[in-house]
Each structure stands twice: as structure tokens, then as C-alpha cells.
Amino acid sequence: MAGSGTAHLRGEDALLRVEELVVEYPTKGGVVQAVSDVSFDVLPGETLGIVGESGCGKSTTGRAVLRLDRMTAGRITFAGERIEKAPEKRMRELRRSMQMIFQDPQASLNPRRSVKDLVVEGLAVAGVPKEERAKVSREVLTQVGLGSERFANLLPRQLSGGQAQRVAIGRALALRPRLLICDEPVSALDVSVQAQILNLIEELKASHDLTVVFIAHDLGVVRAVSDNVLVMYLGKVCEFGDSERVYSSPAHPYTRALLDSVPLTDPDRGFNGPALEGDLPSPLNPPTGCRFRTRCPLAEERCATEPPQIREVRPGQYVACHFPLVSGPSPDAAPATSAEPAPAAAESQPAAGTA
Predict the structure, then answer these.
(1) Per residue in 134-154, pLDDT tens?
(2) Which has the closest alpha carbon to 134: 145, 123, 148?
(3) Among 149, 147, 17, 27, which residue's Cα sits nearest to residue 74?
(4) 287 in the Ramachandran plot: left (φ > 0), alpha (ψ -120 to 50) or beta?
(5) Radius of gyration (C-alpha) of the chain in whole angstroms
(6) Torsions phi, psi of 141, nearest 5?
(7) From CA 223, how far away is CA 325, in angstroms rounded?
(8) Which pTM value belongs to this model?
């Protein structure tokens, strides 16, 4: 899906705008193509969900936005300012408005510092006076549900997973950011705790007027919190659009397969549809043409030679596919196909990319 294009970008009003982002890592075995020509934007107050299998590049994309991973090519604009061109000193200032919640809260917290100090680490780096930091610490811990005095002096190893994630959220909020990037913030938590953290993020988004990028492999979580969703596969954009539309009427065969791989509550049925056939290709040597073609039940010869361009197939719904599950306005669009699940590829094979 090289050359996905920027057809789905919505204008200059976006708080965050990513255009043709490329992130590559040189290794002894070759160049890992982690992110290849990814474009998206997020409007103020919006939540964008980024979803895909492990290894699709979604976390690398989030880290590249904050310049925690070095981008190879592309353009990233935050509040009208080009991130990739900002000097390091200016980038440190910008990160106060762009905060990230990491997947493993315990690993992201200094094990030797108390909770009350952890949540204001960023303010300490910025030179905020100690008295002001103490005030903000109390306020933030109360906001994330850890306002009791007994939590303030605890160390990270004395916290549960949910409590540690609340501390990580509080640390991000203490800097009063405009953009919050959540990288798999609930994947390591129990289901009941997941719900608490998701509700907390939604409450804080409203009260702090946050714009959120929510990265996850769990389709249900992304649907619950996102206004729009971006589906990625092997470093490429497959589909972008309103989350309800994408979930109810997916246009890309990969999106359809991901949704069909979600376990059902009926033990006799297991999954909605058949599993994806084959394994995820190596990012060291991705397939030519459409990267999903080696596992796609609709793939034809054209898919091996011609990378699909992203185009609008329904109002506000964009897909990078030669044979989408719905016809689009493009003059060379393929005839519309049924939106029913793809034909069985391996009935007995476990679901790949189960989310």
C-alpha cells in the first residue's frame, strides 16, 4: 500500500497533521520499514483511534509524533508548527503540550520516586517552584482518583497496575497538554480496571479540553473511545473514517478480517468469520504492491504490481484497496462487492491478529 496518499486529510484546522510519515530502522539484516507513508490528522477535541495487529507500526507512529523515534521522512505539524524542523530546545517546550501515556506504566515510572513527586516530574524539569509543584501534585492526584494521603508517599512497586496507570495519566495532565497520545494504556490491565481507566480518560478529556490519539489492538476499546479510526497493516494505512461507519460497514478486507477475529460470547460459534490465512510478512522485506495481498482472499494480479491509493468510498470513509467491500466514486473503482465476511481461508486455523 505504498503511496497511500493524503486524500483523507481534512484541512488546515487540525491540531495534529501527519503527512507521508516514514520511520525505518537499519539493522544487520536490512532496513526495517516500520512506518511507510502514513498520513492522518486530528481536529481539536477529537479522539483518533489507531488500530492494527502487533507490529503494524501504530506505536512507532505515536512515538514519532513526539520525536521519541527519529522519522526518516515526512511532515508532522502540531498547532501550526513543524515538529521535524524544531530545534531540540524548542521540542522540549512543545512536549509540554504533547504528552504520552505508555503501555507499561511501571516501566515508565522512576522506581525510586514517590507518587507525589512522579506526577510533577515534568514541572520539575521545567523549573516550576517546589511550592507550586506540591499544589499541582495534590490537584492532579485528586483528579485521577488517588487523592488520599496514603497514596502520595508510595513507590511504584507498591501500586497495582491500575493505580500505576493513574499516576502515569496524572503525570501527563500535570503539564496541561493539548494533545494526549495513549499507547495501549489498558492492554496490561484487568477488564474491570480497563473500564475505570477508559472512563477516567474520557472524563479528563472533557474537563481538560484534550485532543487524543488512542493506540490499541483491542477493537472494542477503540470503538468505545474514538470519533475516527485509522486501521494500519505492516506500516501502511488501510482504512480511515468515522468509527461507527468503519465498524459497522468496513471497506477494507483487512478491517473486515480484524472484526471477524473478535471472539464471540457464544462458545459454540467462537468467531464471526474465518481466520486470516498465513503469517504477517516481515517488515524487512514487505510484499510488493499491496502489503496485505499475501493474506487477502480478494487479491488479484493487480494487487502484486500496483500499490493502491487511498480514496473515498463513502462520505468520510477512505480505503487503500483495489477491490474494496463497497464501490467508490473513483472512475477506475472496481465493481462493488458484498460486505459479507470474506470466504473461508482456513477454517481450523486460530484467528490471526485477534483484537
Answers:
(1) 999 999 999 998 988 889 999
(2) 123
(3) 17
(4) beta
(5) 21
(6) -65, -35
(7) 20
(8) 0.86
According to DSSP, residue 248 is labeled H
Using alpha carbons, list the distances in angstroms from residue 239 to 27, 73, 189, 252, 329: 29, 21, 28, 6, 16
Query: If DSSP codes are grouped into helix, strand and coil, which group holds residue 22?
Result: strand
Place of cell 477454517: 347
CB atoms within 10 A of CB 65: 22
pLDDT tens string 173-206: 999 999 999 999 888 788 888 888 899 999 999 9
User: Diameter of the chain by CA atoms?
Assistant: 67
Nearest CA to 38 out of 72, 68, 11 is that of 72
Q: Write b or e for each residue in 106-115: b if 16 or more Cβ atoms lie within 10 A of its Cβ, otherwise e.
A: bebbeeeebb
Give the whole-angstrom CA distance, residue 70 versus residue 228. 26
The answer to whether residues 353 and 258 touch, using CB atoms and an 8 Å cutoff, is: yes
CA dist., res. 190 & res. 153, Å (int): 25
3-state secondary structure 47-78: EEEEECCCCCCHHHHHHHHCCCCCCCEEEEEE
The residues spanned by each domain of the chain are 108-176
Q: Between β-strands 47-51 and 228-233, what pairing exists: parallel, antiparallel or unpaired? A: parallel
Q: Is 258 helix (H, G, I), strand (E, B) or coil?
A: helix
Q: What distance in Å separates the CA atoms of residue 40 and residue 74, rounded to the nearest whole number?
A: 12
CA distance 265 to 245: 23
Q: Which runs of E-coded beta strand occur in the chain? A: 16-27, 30-42, 47-51, 73-78, 81-82, 98-101, 179-183, 211-216, 228-233, 236-242, 310-314, 317-320
Closest CA to 47 of 257, 222, 282: 222
CB atoms within 10 A of CB 94: 17
> Beta strand 236-242 with 310-314: parallel, antiparallel or unpaired?
unpaired
Strand 47-51 and strand 30-42: the pairing is unpaired
Contact 314, 241 (CB under 8 A): yes
Distance CA 165, CA 156 (A): 10
Check whether 331 has a pLDDT greater than 50: no
